[in-house]
Design a protein that fits this description.
4-stranded antiparallel sheet; binds pyridoxal-5'-phosphate; 36% helix; 13 strands; 14% strand; alpha/beta; Aspartate Aminotransferase, domain 1; Aspartate Aminotransferase, domain 2; 2 domains; 5-stranded mixed sheet
Length: 354
Amino acid sequence: MSAERKWESYIRKVVPYIPGEQPKEMDIIKLNTNENPYPPSPRVRKILEDFDYGRMRLYPSPDAEILVDAIAERYGVKPSQVFVGVGSDDVISMAFMTFFGSDKPILFPNITYSFYDVWADVYRIPYRTVPLRDDFTIDPQGYKCENGGIIFPNPNAPTGVLESVDMIEEIIKANPDSVVMIDEAYIDFGGQSCLPFVEKYDNVLVIQTYSKSRSMAGMRIGFAIGSERLIKYMNDVKFSVNSYTMNTVTQLCGAEAVRDEEYFCETVGRIIATRERSKKRLAELGFTFPDSKSNFIFASHKDKPASEIFEELKKRRIYVRYWNKPMIGNYLRITVGTDAEMDSLFDALEEILK
Ligand SMILES: *Cc1c(COP(=O)(O)O)cnc(C)c1O
């Protein structure tokens, strides 16, 4: 590029987050972005079929009331305790903007969702990462110091490691002066949620998404539950940026999906069963991994470097996620797909590792 223009020196420059690949081909096995292998609830399909397209003329409801009410009912909280956004990425981004305004550093794990440092950078929020223990668990001691806020996923990504609610409460108790956010993107796959803490501590925000356990990554629905006080602050910021973020169809589909508890339990149950079977197969193939309570397994092979396995799988049209980064450079993050998809993966791995 040519020399920097004067106006370029005024720009908010950032290094963007890099999402997992979304290849164009349909005939691949896609185990790289933790999507759900099953379609959403059939009740969602009905909503789409019945939708009167003439409604697109009108702006959507700015407060997404139908969706907020359905989520509040499902989780047993007041609608005024629910914030919805366009994917939990939107929700977390809004939460960073709203709550992390101190000049003290916010804290999150050194190995975690790689969007956190990007949001911190884009909003000019100082941050410090806290090392995980060698077994990838969170050490609560690292969060008992002055800070401008705390965020971590539970289970953590990309490790899949679930922390106990008792350990998390220990962190919350040590931090009455900052907002503590728990990103529960994967909690439905066998973890215990921190939702009860939002009634006990008004500085705790729990964030969840429809992208994984509810099979709706393409619709973009995320939500946060917290005290009325926290949610009010978030809504004030949201309505100061863009009131109409979530479209009408999405609001209706999201409300219907969260009402179909039976389908949700069935598909989540299937993924958990496939995950447990996959752990056994991966171990037989010589992989080691921290025990996962999510819809992915973070695995390392005793002989073959992860980067090579990654490339070999890609040649066979199987996509998993690999990061060439310190500490995790010999791991593959493998999304749990259908049983058939996992069997194809194991066949390919057998061949690659022969
Ligand atoms: C997938 C994921 C999200 C974001 O999901 P959305 O699709 O934006 O709802 C947030 N946090 C973690 C840890 C995730 O893995």
